[in-house]
Queue: 2 jobs
Job 1
Amino acid sequence: MSICLIYSVLFLIMSLILFMFSLNFLFYDYSIFMELELLSLNYNSFEMVLLFDWMSMLFMSFVLFISSMVLYYSKEYMLGDLNINRFILIIFMFVMSMMLMIISPNMVSILLGWDGLGLVSYCLVIYYQNIKSSSAGMITAMTNRVGDVMLLMSISWMLNYGSWNFMFYLDCMYNDYYMNVISLLVMMAAMTKSAQIPFSSWLPAAMAAPTPVSSLVHSSTLVTAGVYLLIRFYNCLNLNLLMFLLLIGVMTMFMAGLGANYEYDLKKIIALSTLSQLGLMISILSMGDIMLSFYHLLTHALFKATLFMCAGNMIHTLMNCQDIRYMGNMITQLPLTCVIFNISNLSLCGFPFLAGFYSKDLILEVVSMSYINIYIYIIFYISTGFTMMYTIRLMYYSMIGNFNFLGMNSMVESSFIMLKSMLLLVIMINIGGSMLSWLIIKTPYFICLPIIMKFMTIISILLGLIIGYNLSKMKLSYSIKSLNNLFSSLFFSSMWNMPLLSTYLNKWFLLLGNDFYNSMDQGWYEYLGSQNLYNNYKNNSKIFQSLFNNNMKIYMVLVVAWLFLLLLLLL
């Protein structure tokens, strides 16, 4: 039995067990805090705190289920790879880092999981070792380091409270100045991990990783970590932070939806779609509905993982070609893959009774009922139309248009292992949305809207469908007359020049750090800082330990010395 199959079965069994536990905890409204003493040093106890409630266990169940399908999928996708065992073990480390982050109510253990996600994602992005992968991995690592620094600063601010278990302070310290600063730092950290503006450029760049990694990273693990952290920290986010977060979320949603309509790389279109949906989750969370945000996070994980798997199958069949302009009429040669691809796309667009419909339609109707300004309202519905536009464009280029690659007989649907893993996820897409709506929404939403606002969602979707189809049929000519179109398409497809700005900013900070080290530091921080502190602490501990081990002998020697001194004084 291969290592892929072993880990896949293990994750699937763990997913089912956790799902049953989450239902039990949800029904009885249980939460379990578990304190594990790691070590005791000089009467100081180092404890690790874990939180098990229905939300963390349900999220872990979904992560493990998708990881199980991805590992089974990798068995065939990575078949020719000589280092397949290393690849599987790196993914295992990635999933375990995510598990640690999910069940941690403690800032230090959250940082361990958070940093584990960042470091292991760097290893996965540079898996295909070339210049492009190296550049993509560096921008991914550097952007995520900003979030790590924010969390480290929040840990230092939490020293004011005497404990890093932030769960105990969220309600009682709501108006405290220190907690407001911690909330701001945590919000910035979540923005980096969930790729909100201005940290968005790393998410499409991370597509340099193998497709199974993209399927896992951009559906349920790395990018959703920021949203999950904000859900946990929601009680102490004040109104100003939430308004700022709402503005950033809708801007990200609009920018990613617009950019996806100008992109030609299959995986990058799906990555920009992920970015758009993350903006949607952040927006509805900042408007006060954390349950809807969590609900959309789970349903989005299902259909986005399936979309990446279908894209991987198409790329595999087209001999590693990712440009959608070379595709077309694939429905004749890859019927099952295209059916699964269409179901996932329809779920993304909110087609009735698929997973995306239950969460996305409810979010848009709650937005319509909310007390918000016209700017936010319009951007929400325009972004929904953009979702339909790039989805129709993707379906046109891959299935409706002419086939523009090699001979069509070179395409054959023989990847049964990949298809089996995709089919299991498609079953969840069909039943997952309604199942989750029955489970996690305890009180049904009462939506009361005028007829025109009720139909706004379907109007924006139909407009997006018509415009997207007509734009796909038009051939964009890059002649001298259409230089304006060329510049606008380059500007929009490069996400408003954000990768360029991120690269230059990272470059100057790295150069500044190198100059500082060479001219001022020269290794003194290592001597005066962590390493020397550790050595001093270790040596002092050895002295105290030797005193504690020989305390009876030392006591007796001191008694004898005292008696001897007493005799001398008496004489």
Job 2
Amino acid sequence: MEAADLLCDSLFRWLENRKKCAEKLLKLAQKLEKVNRRSNIAQGFGGATAVLSITGAVVVGVLTGGLFPLLALATVGTVVGTGVSVTPTLQKANVSRKTFNKATELIKEDEEVGTSIQKQLQDLKDRCGGTQLGAHADELECEVTTQLMWALARRNKTVVPLDFLRGFNRATFFRHITSGGLDPTEALRFICQALNLIRVPVIKSSLKVLDAIGLDRSLSNLIVNCEEIVKRKQISEASKFLRDSALEILDGQQELKEQLDAMHEIIQKLFRMKNLVKDLGGYSLCLTENGQNVMDYIMGTCTDSTVISWLEGITHQIELVNLLRFVLENLGPLIKDFISPGGGHIDIVIVGHGRIINQFMPAGGLVPTPTIRDTILYSPWNCSIDSYAAFGIAQGLIDVTNRQFYYTSNMLYYEPNNLPQRWNSMRRSLHNIPGILLYPLTPEEEAWTFFHFLLNNGGLFTEDCAIIPYVVPQNMLNAFGEIPLYILIFVTSFILMVQGKTATVHLAACLDRAGSPPRRAEWRRQYAYTSDGTRMTMNMDDFRHISSRLLNALMLMFDS
């Protein structure tokens, strides 16, 4: 986002300029101290007013620069300009015009940068949905912080996806705006352990709490202070005021520098986590050290209580890490080293043996945001599919107009009642859905050999689509078993987030009840259902010429 890049550049320019401003103010304070030592009482009283007028103007000009809008995350008025000139008193005190002009040039530049920061911050807030999120300040603050960190990552040429940064921020500094998952303290412990962070810097509070950096003093108060000093005609007090203000500026400058350094450290840690996920290594029946770190990070950042509950046992944690390896292996070059500012969208088709159970969950559980845009189910509830339907789903050929249904017992075709003229979109659904379980193909099945041949000879993907058959890797029967569909989709969404992609998931699996009690009222309310023993197929009249190894594998899987 260009607004974040501009703001990031201005902040670093501001940091450098503030340091120089403070150094010049300290130098002027030293000159004023010389004035106080050399002037007699009468001359000191006569010259103090002119000197202190300049002092007040200089301090006002420096203190009203650009850090305030970043830290306050609020609209601030235009920075007040400062007009100064070199008086004979300063010239007599050996404050050279060159020294003074350099200080005023820095102050003027600081005002310009401060004004730019205010405008750039407001632009960033607007682009992050400031108008729409006006009533949700924390959401806006989270997004602004995320965009700034993303710009910082680009500035340092560190490739970390936006959603990866956003997920970290929501799990740490902005945990209060999400619900579910682990207790916040426990989640933070997992995240710190996974990233090898001693502690997570308090970036959020530093964005809001001004008194921590000494910039809560208002412009009017500074002017009043200067006027009081002038009235008392205390040039030594003026020099002290100038020196203290310079030190305060340095403290504020250092505070922001520490915040940006902390952001940079987090970005580097997330970059290492991204590579750790990508390089998990081979399948394992135990949690390796790298696998444990990835598992800790997932546990800390996940806000889905259902997923967290499933991961309570070590067996399921090992299984999830192996699923991470499995999805990475099957997505292949579609996600390898691919990161772009705009991301990249793909379609993912999950192929497996499936069934529904007598447990219900929100449809949104199959659309973990923000990386999964939608999950599409094709058959009604209590319905299986044949190879033609699976092939049509996998190839994107199936349409609601060419789907057909028949009884497996007598092969007679029929049309289910109240069948919607659309596929079952999980994003659009407002109702609960039956739990869906997937179980893998095993070496005992003839289709297993066919699928392995396809996977080992170019894979099952095109430029923007990947077919992931749930096929157990050879000699790893104990590493995989029957899993909830939401777990496989969660794993996929995590991989996509780490790699900077989004996807629409399509399911090619049977959804018959397989002995579970019928729940017709709930099935009908959510979408539609069929009678026991019904199978969905696809009219292949227009595709009879297709000769495909994938179709052959699907025939062995679904029709045998």
